């Protein structure tokens, strides 16, 4: 088997009114942008957030320049961003306090995490997790099989 190339996945969020999104993410994640480049008209050309060892990018939706459409333009999103935090419930509350919508309230899941789903005010969906315990793939499969069996009864 070949070794995997060294790489890093970085979500790039296209947003209508990205300046408001930059303020939102700064409040919610309690971090200032690492890099913020504005266009001459003041719209966000590129913003980089760094949180721990993770990072993500934000920019204004630019449909006239071949940019990726925002969830507002699509009427939804096709991607969810999964975020690991020390306290799932606290992060969900912070997001709610900043005009996000809970899609699934925090709950302990069979794979050993406390998990919730939230949609931010710009239409991006976030899976928020806190690791409760480390399970092996076999333990997770056994728990999933049990859950699916109970669901079909």
TrEMBL record:
Residues 6-131 form the VOC domain. This is Glyoxalase-like domain protein. It comes from Stratiformator vulcanicus.
